[in-house]
Design brief:
With 289 residues, this protein is of the alpha+beta class. It contains eight helices and five strands, in the order αααααααβββββα. Strands 1, 2, 3, 4 and 5 form a five-stranded antiparallel β-sheet that branches. Strand 2 and strand 3 form a beta hairpin. It is elongated.
Length: 289
């Protein structure tokens, strides 16, 4: 833009204004172009901060992972401890149940078992359910309710050598008495001849608590010799037809110390057509062996 100055007297003032303005513009330009870059008050700290930040992030991540792992481990340890506690409680309950059942069975010097007939009845009931409440429990009752003489007979009947663990003898008795068409299977709940004929696998047909294959009859009173020995006769009759199946004679002997009655021998006379004639205890040994 052109400005026409009519009065020459104004030229000196204008010239001074132009020179002053140019000086201010030049000073501002020089100050702008030559100003130093921004330097923080603590450059070492700032650089260190930038260098450490990624490490801190990794450290925080690792701490989080470690915390999560610790939580998982603690949870697993708690579950293991809870499982172990439940296992111990169930084991103790089972052990208490077994001990309570043992106390209700012979051998015992309780008043109930002072009569040998009650001893015989309890043994027969246990044999009908030989694996209740635990496997081989009925055979354990039979074996522990025997004198040393009859224990030796039972051990020999299954071919077990002297010194065999009792549990192995229980297992062997179970195998022998529970096999098909065994004369003594009636004692372990395998039923009568008719039941055995209609079942392909009578070993699976054990009697239950409310179901037996025979009734027990004592035709005579206990013959007590009053010398620590006694004789008991019992008869097994078919539960449906009342047919006489087996006659057993029990030789009993009192245990030294507490006077509990023990089995010292069993005579067996079989009246079932399939197994006649019975020949007494020798047949017992042969059949079980």
């Amino acid at each position: 833009m052109m400005i026409f100055i009519r009065s020459y007297k104004a030229w000196p003032a204008i010239f001074v204004f132009i020179i002053s303005s140019a000086s201010q513009i030049n000073a501002a330009f020089i100050a702008r172009t030559t100003a130093p870059a921004y330097i923080p008050s603590n450059p070492k700290r700032t650089i260190r901060q930038f260098a450490i930040e990624p490490h801190n992030e990794n450290k925080n991540t690792n701490q989080q992972n470690t915390s999560q792992s610790s939580t998982v481990s603690s949870s697993a340890a708690f579950e293991d401890a809870l499982f172990l506690e439940r296992f111990k409680r169930r084991r103790n309950e089972a052990a208490s149940k077994i001990e309570a059942e043992r106390s209700r069975r012979p051998p015992s010097n309780s008043t109930h078992f002072s009569d040998p007939k009650n001893v015989v009845t309890s043994i027969l009931e246990g044999m009908l359910r030989p694996h209740d409440p635990v496997p081989y429990f009925g055979y354990e009752t039979l074996y522990t309710s025997s004198t040393l003489h009859w224990k030796d007979v039972l051990r020999k009947s299954v071919g077990a050598p002297v010194g065999t663990e009792e549990e192995l003898i229980f297992r062997a008795l179970s195998t022998s008495m529970e096999r098909d068409n065994n004369q003594f299977g009636i004692l372990v709940g395998l039923g009568t001849d008719f039941d055995s004929n209609i079942n392909d696998n009578p070993s699976d047909e054990f009697a239950t608590e409310d179901d037996g294959y025979y009734t027990v009859e004592f035709p005579w009173d206990t013959l007590d010799y009053y010398d620590g020995t006694a004789w008991v006769e019992c008869r097994l009759r078919d539960k449906q037809s009342d047919t006489l199946l087996v006659v057993l004679g029990w030789s009993m002997e009192q245990r030294d110390g507490d006077g509990a009655w023990l089995i010292d021998g069993i005579d067996w006379q079989d009246f079932r057509e399939k197994y006649r004639p019975g020949i007494g205890r020798e047949e017992w040994e042969r059949i079980c062996g």
